[in-house]
């Protein structure tokens, strides 16, 4: 099975840290990065081109 590349965009620190810890435990997921706001998240997604982006719904871009 191929690895899934992923970027996480979440503005709540505790949620972001917890999700990152859980995602890094999954062997088939490669976490390319995490952003704490919408602007940083869009930039990271454009630069890394992940196969999946998990984005908080309440962010402003």
Automatic annotation (TrEMBL):
Organism of this sequence: Crocosphaera chwakensis CCY0110
Taxonomic superkingdom: Bacteria
Sorted UniProt keywords: Phosphoprotein
The keyword Protease is annotated on this UniProt entry: no
Protein name: Two-component response regulator
Residue positions, PTM 4-aspartylphosphate: 58
GO BP annotations listed: phosphorelay signal transduction system
Domain Response regulatory: 5-61
InterPro entries, A to Z: CheY-like_superfamily, Sig_transdc_resp-reg_receiver
